[in-house]
Amino acid sequence: MNTAASKWREDLASWAIPKAILDGAETKPWIHPPAVFQIPNEIPDSPSLARIREAISGGGSILDVGCGGGIASFGCTPPATHVIGVDQQQEMLDLYSENAKKFNVTSETFLGDWPEVSSQVPMADVVTAFHVVYNVGDIKPFIEALNQHAKKRVVLEFPTSHPMTAMALGWKHFWNLERPTKPTAQDLMNVISELGITANIEYFSGPILLDKVVSEFEKPLRIRLCLPESRDEEVKAFFIQNPLPTTRDLAVIWWDK
Q1: Name one Pfam family in it (predicted).
Q2: How many Å separate Cα 201 from the centre of its chain?
Q3: CATH number where 188 lies
């Protein structure tokens, strides 16, 4: 049966890097340097953070799935009085705990993939997953576990199209490889509706907080493109001439319990 969830899984699978390219890569391209996920000194406000704050205006807890440094949590502290981080990298959780101390808020962390570790994780007033869904092929149990852990609201933020869309020119230039255009935010809305959840969606434009000067990021960009170290300068030159965008189209999906 062709469902919204199966379509989401198939569309995400179309982003797989061809085996011949992947096998030849010096370093596998799935890199998430923890330092890149440190939150900025001033967290810019957004519709996503506003949706979280309005659900805990008098104080409450946030469960942040795929938390990274915790921008979803600490962009809402206060009014949040307790935060819970889940991530598959211990380095991210260490960063999250350090940030909780800076914001003078109590915290818990859980290492592992969601929803596999969900049975160990307590419920919270608001459950968030910022910039995570495009990494989740089996989206139905992921969303269901988020929903089951929320006392008041679930808030999801993510780009309207796959985050690697910005790298499409690089893949075309270096590998003559066309990148897909699906799935999109509307496809996720279709999945959520299929689960019997009535959700809201809002579109907005936001800064790419991880944008840095090319000299700091040429290596991760080169690795993401499965290119050898010998081509560092070539990759740097390409992205100077074809800079990555500094803003992107985002969506926030939220629903109340």
Answers
A1: Methyltransf_23
A2: 17
A3: 3.40.50.150
